[in-house]
Amino acid sequence: MKTADRTGVPRAIEWSLQLYAVLLRAYPKRFLASCGREMKDAFAADLQRAFRYGRAFGVVRLWLHTLYDFVTSVVPERVGFARQSSRRPASREPRHRAPLRRRRRETLDMFYDFMQDLRYGFRTLARTPTFTAVAIVILALGIGANTTMFTIVNSLFFEPPPHVAEPDRLVRLYTTHDRTQAGALSYPDFAYYRSNNVVFDGVFAYSQGLALTAISTGGSTQINGWLVSPGYFDVLGVRMAMGRPFVPDDGRVPGGEPVAVISHRFWRQSFGEDSSVVGATLTLNGHPFTVIGVAPEGFRGASPTEMPPEVWLPMTMRSVLLPTTMDYFNRVEGTILYWVSAMARLKPGVSIEQAQANMEALGLYLAESFVEWNGGKSATAATYRFHARDRGSLVTMAGMLAVVVAIVLLIASANIAILLLARASARAKEMGVRIALGAGRGRVIRQMLTESLLLGLGGGVLGFVVAFWSAGLAANLMPFTFAVQFTPDLGVLTFAIGLAAGTAMLFGCMPALQASRMDVASEIQRGRSPGRSLMRNALVVGQVGLSVLLVTGAVLFARSLNTARAIDLGFETERRLVVGVNFRNHGYDRSRAMTFIEAALQRIASVPGVEAVSTVQMIPFMGKWMSDFTASGVTPPQGRNRFDAGFNSVGPDYFGTMGIPLVAGREFTVQDGVGAPGVVIVNEVIAATVWPGQDAIGKQVRVSGVDGTVVGVARNATYYNLGEEPRAQFYIPTLQDDGFSTAFLVRTAGLPLASLRSVQNEINTLDPNLAVSRTLTMEDALDSEIGRYRVSATLVSLFGFLALLLATVGLYGVLSYLVVQRTREIGIRVALGATRASVGATVLARGMKLAAAGIVIGVAGALVSAKFVTSFLYGISPRDPVTFIIVPIVLMAVACVASFLPARRATLVDPMVALRSD
Q1: DSSP string spanning 445-462?
Q2: Which of 176, 547, 761, 789 is the most exposed place for a label (fewest CB within 10 A)?
Q3: Given pLDDT bands bounded at 50, 70 and 90, which one contains residue 133?
């Protein structure tokens, strides 16, 4: 070992010197002629000393310093000598340059000074734990709100979808009508675009939301499936974790070879990560499918708002899984079905504008060639991330929330600035003494900025923790279902710390600059700065003004939400439970489905706590079902041959269960079943427009080729959208319909979810294999409709409360510091005869003046910006007078409370103690 050490020392030094000699060649020759020898000798001495005392660690540290010096000095030296060469004759000697060793020493001195500032800053902040904790918490609240929003926006709009190759080249295809993007295409249109475009490398179609009952080695379960065209995985550029993707032969023949690709999660849960899963059989809705591939882990498609499925199936298997008499794949006279979404990959070098032009040309050709199906329609290409129905709402809502959290950050930053200014005033004598003893103003600024940096780092780390907890919670409040998990990562942590440090440094500049410009003699004697008081007052006024903006928005959104909830829907939502089933997915024919419905209605009605039960096909706010009908002896207007209306298939006692009054006639009954005469119930709009001034009961109509008699007239209700105008709607009996996709509507005596398990047990008693497709309450359906108003009211109210709290803390802090700062003055005034009430009133009046100034500015800003929140409000004006009366009153009351405590403290000042204090 000793021999190795003796031989290793010179060898390590020799190698290091050789490498250092190579590095020196990067310097100009004239510089090396002047300083090269000195640099080599100095490096050799440093190397010997580093190896002797620090061993390997010492050598590494020396090389780190050396490389840093090398990187920061080579370019300046070359530039300097180049300038000298252009200005001086070549025969003149170069100007003397300081050796690199001296520069290294200066760099180390700066580093040591910074470390000293850090240590002193830590000690200073530790001596005032209350100030430090309050500042970090305030900063963390502002940073946490912004980091939460950054996490959501980054995940939705910027983070590339996992396992998708070159997502920037993906576009989404739409059918357009009157320049409005519809969310779906017909299959014949998709096939035409796929075959005739000149701008895409590939096009695929898919249909999501297919409820399936799957039986595998892991047992039976209800899963979500997608129907996709063969190019789905290839166009997205997804590589299978196991097996292969679909090929054209897999979907060439409708109902052909049944194959499936399963998700990585489904493979793990249902197949136990069996490596031989490729080739295994998976039974879906009673039909066997062969597993040909497993998607990679984490693959969720291309859109963050589309829930990824457990299984992908060829699109042509629709007729097997969902038997129907309708033709979904061809143009049939009298009908066209828009049911597929489509995406495409741009060819290299093709822009989205070129793709839009090509799609518009193809759409124009279809409109001219197939007038019955495509007349008045066109097509376009747009960004791939979101459907047209979601994109505008998401962008608008994200933009609104980004502005709100930015205002919260401004208020928090102003609070930090107030605290730092107050702290700088309290340390005025300290800073004066340091300057008087020779400390440079730059050193004073650097010390205060270092302390601000430490506060910012602490606030950033804590803000990241806040975002980690709140990002998913905030996303759950939004009226969208997201396929991504909003979990902050390293990039979000970097954003949080960078934002916190930048904010703290920015607002720490004000007290630092003021401290460096102080009058030393005045500060040592009095420790006060009028300029700082003016700046603190301005910050408080700004805080109050910004909080008025958020509180006004919160009140507007809350009133809008209450208005939306109080609207007369025409039916009741309380204590209504919906339990859906899908008979088609379980191989039921019409006769068997009708028999099951009749038996289930009887069994569910006997469940304790159930007051009434019926069936419904279209749940309000959960879809739009349109059809047409003719009325005997009545000619439709505008030369049309039929009336258009919404329709719903409902069961016996539906209107009583739903709380929709009948203004004439009767309900459907169990006698209105298969083989009975056809019956229809219409709403008041149909009765008034088709048979004005007549009794609609007994009138004859023809719906979907079936004759029916109007047996009832129901009151108008809200069917599809909140606040919609009354529209035509008719109802047909479930027992005369196919009933393949229906839901049981239950009115309960207590909480609806308390009866859910009993209702499901009754369904499973009749058929243990019949899975419930979905469950919800009618209040859930209403909440989904008013989701945007609920989100606005909830989040903006939360941030408004936070802003109000921060502004209150800022006002309280300024007045409290004012009382502490002027304790001697207050004592003198009391000693000279001033009443304690007048002293308290002076402090209270100052706080109220600051609050009033901020409220005036905030109200003016709220009136100007009110028009930008119109789309988020329902039923009230953005300049609602009640709101603009309530908010100033509330703010003044809060300001009064915040000012009262410092004012009361001022009244308790003891003159003798104050006069003895300095």
Answers
A1: HHHHHHHHHHHHHHHHHH
A2: 761
A3: confident
Q: What pLDDT score does 262 carry? A: 94
Spatial separation of the C-alpha atoms in residues 527 and 834, rounded to whole Å: 25
| Helices marked H in 88-206 | 100-127, 129-153, 187-196
Query: What does residue 807 show for φ and ψ, rounded to 5 degrees?
Result: -65, -40
First to last CA, the chain: 69
Using CB atoms within 10 Å of the CB of residue 178, give its burial: 0 to 12 exposed, 13 to 18 middle, 19+ buried. Answer: exposed
Residue with the bigger pLDDT between 52 and 331: it is 331
Task: Please give the single-letter amino acid code of residue 399.
Answer: G
Give Cα 320 distance to the centre of its chain. 38
The helix/strand/coil state of 292 is strand
Q: Residue 610 contacts by C-beta under 8 Å, 6 or more apart in sequence?
A: 604, 746, 747, 748, 749, 755, 758, 759
Contact between residue 620 and residue 719 where contact means Cβ atoms under 8 Å apart: yes
Q: Is 590 exposed, middle or buried (0-12, 13-18, 19+ CB in 10 A)?
A: middle
Return d(Cα 915, Cα 918) in angstroms, integer. 8
Spatial separation of the C-alpha atoms in residues 844 and 849, rounded to whole Å? 9
Write the pLDDT tens digit of every residue in 186-209: 899 999 999 999 999 999 999 887
- Asked if 356 contacts 379 with a C-beta cutoff of 8 angstroms, the reply is no
- Token pair 């710390």 is found at 497
**Residue recorded with tokens 């789905």:** 232
The three-class DSSP label of residue 591 is helix
Q: Are strands 287-294 and 259-262 parallel, antiparallel or unpaired?
A: parallel
Distances, alpha carbon 191 to alpha carbons 283, 322, 366, in Å: 29, 21, 12
Shortest CA distance to 621 belongs to which of 404, 424, 783?
Answer: 783
Share of the chain above pLDDT 70, in %: 81
Strands (E), 152-303: 170-177, 180-182, 185-186, 200-216, 219-228, 242-243, 259-262, 281-284, 287-294
DSSP string, 361-399: HHHHHHHHH-HHHHTTEEEEEEESSS-HHHHHHHHHHHH
Q: Residue 346 has which token pair?
A: 């741009």
Contact call for residues 847 and 903 (beta carbons, < 8 A): yes
- Contact, 613 vs 598, CB < 8 A? no
What gap in Å lies between CA 903 and CA 845, rounded to an integer? 9
| Confidence label for 88 from pLDDT (cuts 50, 70 and 90) | very low
Here the tokens at position 774 are 């979905």
How many other C-beta atoms are found inside a 10 Å radius of the C-beta of residue 102?
A: 11
| SS3 call for 513 | helix
d(CA 708, CA 679): 5
Contacts of 308 by beta carbon, 8 Å cutoff, 6+ apart = 263, 299, 300, 301, 483
d(CA 209, CA 226): 6
User: Could you give the angle at which helices 490-516 and 388-426 cross, rounded to 10 degrees?
Assistant: 30
Q: Half-sphere exposure of residue 329, counting CA atoms within 13 Å on the CB side? A: 14
- Give the CA diameter of the chain: 117
Instruction: Judge whether 510 and 803 are in contact, CB under 8 Å.
Output: no
Q: Which two tokens stand for residue 643?
A: 């009336």
Helix H or strand E encompassing 552: helix 530-566
Distance CA 138, CA 366 (A): 60
Return d(Cα 190, Cα 172) in angstroms, integer.
12
d(CA 434, CA 832): 36
Please answer whether residues 50 and 62 qualify as being in contact, where contact means their C-beta atoms are separated by less than 8 angstroms.
yes
**What pTM value is reported for the model?**
0.69
Q: How distant, in Å, are the alpha carbons of 534, 844, 849, 894 from that of 841? A: 20, 5, 12, 17
With beta carbons less than 8 A apart as the criterion, state whether 512 and 435 touch.
no
